[in-house]
Amino acid sequence: MIQTILSISLFAIFTTIGFIHFYWLFGGKWGINNALPTEENGEKAMKPPKIATAIVALGLISFGLLYLVKTGIFNNQVPNWIITYGGWIIPTIFILRTIGDFKYVGLFKKIKHTDFAKADTKLFVPLCLSIGIIGIIIQLMNK
Hints:
Blueprint: H1 2-25, H2 50-70, H3 80-99, H4 115-142
């Protein structure tokens, strides 16, 4: 029961974040200023192409669907190895994102006073850490 609740929670989180990325892909502006790392002078550190935004959106929704499949709510044709490896790879990605790149993102970022860095500290790092921990808990409950 707890595993199902946690899996549905991750499904909801990933689906929501995936749709936010699609919103940005199609020109939406809400939240975009705090979503990309910036230099200390306020200049964007990266300008991802639309294809990268689409790939991230599809990836996030796929992650959500993996957790929906893990609930067992419906029969699926997904090979077991995808569920098993994906169930470990996804939390690993988000734990690594929590640690960061040692410059712009994560717990050990060097640039800490931009709007993005503040949002990263208050929102993105705790979210990524929570996703990572919940994903690991779900995997350990499968044993």
